[in-house]
Design a protein that fits this description.
Helix content: 25-40%
Low-confidence stretches: none
Radius of gyration: 25 Å
Oligomer: single chain
Largest sheet: 6 strands, antiparallel, barrel
Shape: globular
Mean pLDDT: 95
Number of helices: 16
Number of strands: 18
Structural class: alpha/beta
Length: about 500
């Protein structure tokens, strides 16, 4: 995947001038050795920060060594002003961690008091309105701090990715999907760029790609990817033309941004003019780390990109779609494990999920669109989905969304895709989340989230929650365990 950041983390240690500087130096050395032994990348910054001049030296060294994610390590108490000034002036995500004391045999010259120093640093963080990542327990020995660095890297990837992201949209958001139509001002507050275009712009770039020489190569690649699932070989050339048009537009319009995603209008006028549904092409771009959200869902595209950065795997956008019938639940009793019937739901979309995330993906036609546009006829303009059962395994559903009054809120829930045949059409799977029914009612409905959810194909809640906190999101919903009531939940 080329559309996600490569993180080069660096470590700067700080030292209060009334403590031995050797404490910070030696403890940093041990952290670096632990990272090396665990194959965790970490660049050493030799400058140790005791004062503001050291802060400037450290910043220059960070820039020279191309560090784009900073670990500030309190090897001893540390100077709170220069420490937090470093976090403020560094242009990228920052984590703070501190050293635990190492031995009861050395608590006079060898005592660092970093436990205390972190409190002072946290106060100064507030003075400067900063949101660095602070691990759940940010004090540890060298091995524990190395593990904190490993956890910080995907969080930094998400944050760095958003700061360098452009969301490219085509078409007005559809009337029947007002839920996808949210204010974009909060995106600019996050540092995300938005480039909105019309469906006519999309059709224009498609037509201009008609005779591109790359069409043959892309068609051959599609043929190889689909294998036995290539039900409509006559359609591939048009789909390849569309893929080339989007790819070229992406390359030519990133501008000052480093990464890009799409949020595109995909029906109903699309099919009449383009002659196909775009789902399969969307799935192929998602497999390269360039999600294409359906129905001009700008916040859906943003959420998919966050999932891709967090996991380094393709993400997808699905409807939280339908319940699992009781007879299916009973038939699959041996596969539903510890889940109750109302812990299950089906995640579905027309056919936008990457082939690597499906069992036996096949090119088909979009049944719902076919009912609308070609009733009673053989599929023609409604062909082009990639359909199949979503692979069983761990997953996380989540979304970052603006409310109608431009306030960002989010939700996260971990669960799994079960090894159960959904007996239906589209890119679809049976999803399981503990206490889903209550989460659905008291988070998704109560907080007015739309039907689209981003899906990360890995448990990613810890990473995403930390990233949301760094972004300043205060309202983060999650699935409460049985017996813990949501605000407003009827206790009787």
């Amino acid at each position: 995947m080329k559309n996600i950041p490569v993180i080069n983390p660096g470590i700067v240690t700080v030292s209060r001038d009334c403590f031995p500087i050797e404490l910070s130096q030696n403890r940093k050395t041990r952290v670096l050795k632990e990272c090396q032994s665990k194959n965790i990348p970490l660049t050493e910054i030799e400058t140790i920060v005791e004062n503001e001049k050291d802060t400037l030296k450290a910043l220059a060294e960070l820039k020279k060594k191309s560090v784009n994610a900073l670990v500030i390590y309190l090897g001893n108490f540390g100077p709170e002003g220069p420490t937090t000034m470093l976090a403020q002036k560094f242009n990228g995500p920052v984590m703070l961690a501190a050293a635990a004391e190492e031995s009861g045999k050395d608590l006079i010259q060898g005592r660092g008091d970093a436990f205390c120093g972190m409190l002072n640093a946290s106060y100064n963080i507030g003075l400067r309105n900063l949101n660095p990542h602070i691990p759940e327990y940010p004090i540890g020995n060298a091995g524990e701090v190395a593990d904190m660095v490993a956890e910080f890297i995907p969080i930094a990837r998400v944050i760095h990715g958003l700061k360098k992201l452009k969301i490219i949209s085509f078409g007005p958001r559809p009337q029947d999907f007002y839920a996808c139509n949210a204010p974009i001002k909060p995106l600019f507050d996050l540092g995300v760029e938005v480039m909105e275009n019309s469906e006519l712009d999309l059709y224009d770039i498609f037509l201009k790609a008609k005779d591109k020489p790359e069409i043959k190569k892309v068609t051959e690649d599609m043929t190889q990817e689909l294998g036995k699932g290539n039900a409509y070989p006559d359609l591939l050339e048009k789909l390849a033309q569309y893929e080339i048009a989007l790819t070229q537009f992406y390359n030519e319009n990133l501008g000052a941004s480093e990464f890009g995603v799409f949020a595109n209008k995909c029906w109903p006028a699309f099919e009449s003019h383009f002659g196909f549904v775009p789902c399969y092409v969307n799935s192929r771009l998602a497999s390269r780390g360039i999600p294409v959200a359906c129905e001009v869902d700008i916040y859906g595209a943003l959420s998919e990109f966050m999932a891709t950065c967090a996991t380094m795997l393709p993400a997808t956008l699905l409807d939280i779609n339908n319940t699992v019938p009781d007879d299916m639940y009973k038939e699959a009793k041996d596969k539903v494990k510890k889940y109750k019937s109302n812990d299950l739901f089906m995640g579905f979309h027309c056919g936008n999920t990457a082939s690597s995330c499906l069992l036996g993906g096949e090119m088909k036609y979009q049944l719902i669109m076919n009912r609308l546009m070609e009733p009673g006829k053989e599929p023609n303009i409604t062909r082009g989905t990639l359909e199949g059962r979503i692979q069983p395994g761990d997953m996380t559903i989540f979304r970052l969304q603006s409310t109608a009054d431009a306030v960002l809120r989010a939700y996260i829930a971990e669960g799994e895709v079960l090894d159960i045949d959904p007996k239906s059409f589209g890119s679809i799977g049976v999803f399981a989340v503990k206490e889903m029914a209550r989460f659905y009612r008291h988070v998704l409905i109560a907080k007015k989230f739309p039907h689209h959810t981003a899906v990360a194909f890995k448990h990613s809640g810890k990473i995403l929650y930390a990233a949301f906190k760094m972004l300043g999101i205060e309202d983060i919903g999650f699935n409460f365990p049985e017996g813990t009531l949501y605000g407003g939940e009827n206790p009787f």
